[in-house]
Design brief:
The protein has about 240 residues and is mostly helical. It has a domain at about 75-135. Helices cover about 85% and strands about 0% of the residues. Helix 8 packs antiparallel against helix 10 (about 180-235) and helix 9 packs antiparallel against helix 10 (about 180-235). The chain is rod-shaped, with a radius of gyration of 34 Å.
Length: about 240
């Protein structure tokens, strides 16, 4: 019995602590992973991806400011136009639209300049002016949409080129090293992740701007309808 107990004690004493070793290894690997280090390992493809990101950011800020300015309209603007028209001061209404800082005033100015013409001509003038304003708001949105599609493609290109390089190195070395393969794959997957992130951000920017444009167009339509109603009222008296 004493001999058996001694053997068990010796076995327990010399058993390696694999749990501690595993935790230490995982901790070390976790410490080696950091954002800037991974981005740096993404290779040359990261350069055009970041260029696309900054272009998307610039376009979003520029378009956001322009559309916000375009959508502004003083609540008393249309009321002032109405009072001038009822008073017969058409030229005063035109001058008021010219000096107004609101882009929607340009639509009404086109209609005011055609007072005396058939109502259909006035409507066409307002519609044509509205098309110009909508075109100005949608300027460069196509580039933002393209970035949302191109950025992920650059990411996939970086991943594929990295995979090709990894397997080429394996064929040259004529040996398979699992650690080398895993390292090459996770490093090159960074380009795919970054490209997808930039694409998602660009699409998010695009959605915000198109929503703002839709709201502004709706405001223009309501203003134009109210203006045409004002033109009908003096004629009906």
């Amino acid at each position: 019995m004493t001999t058996l107990l001694s053997i068990l004690l010796q076995t327990t004493t010399f058993e390696p602590d694999t749990t501690s070793t595993t935790v230490t290894t995982v901790t070390k690997v976790g410490e080696d992973l950091n954002l800037f280090g991974l981005l740096e390992k993404g290779g040359w493809v990261m350069i055009p991806i970041f260029v696309l990101f900054f272009i998307a950011l610039f376009l979003f800020v520029e378009r956001y400011r322009y559309i916000s300015k375009t959508s502004r309209l003083d609540n008393t603007f249309l009321f002032s136009i109405k009072e001038m028209l009822f008073a017969g001061n058409i030229q005063g209404a035109i001058n008021y639209c010219k000096t107004s800082p609101f882009p929607i005033a340009r639509l009404l100015e086109k209609g005011l300049n055609r007072i005396g013409s058939p109502m259909r001509d006035i409507e066409n003038a307002i519609e044509n002016s509205a098309r110009v304003e909508i075109y100005n708001m949608e300027k460069n949105l196509g580039i933002l949409s393209a970035i949302a599609k191109i950025a992920p493609m650059f990411g996939f290109l970086g991943t594929v080129s990295g995979m090709i390089r990894t397997f080429h190195n394996i064929s040259v070395a004529n040996k398979i090293d699992i650690s080398t393969i895993a390292s090459g794959i996770y490093e090159k997957m960074v380009t795919s992740a970054t490209g997808l992130m930039v694409g998602i951000i660009a699409y998010f920017f695009y959605t915000i701007l198109t929503t703002m444009i839709d709201r502004t167009v709706n405001k223009m339509e309501v203003t134009a309808i109210d203006f045409l109603d004002i033109l009908h009222k003096p004629a009906s008296k």
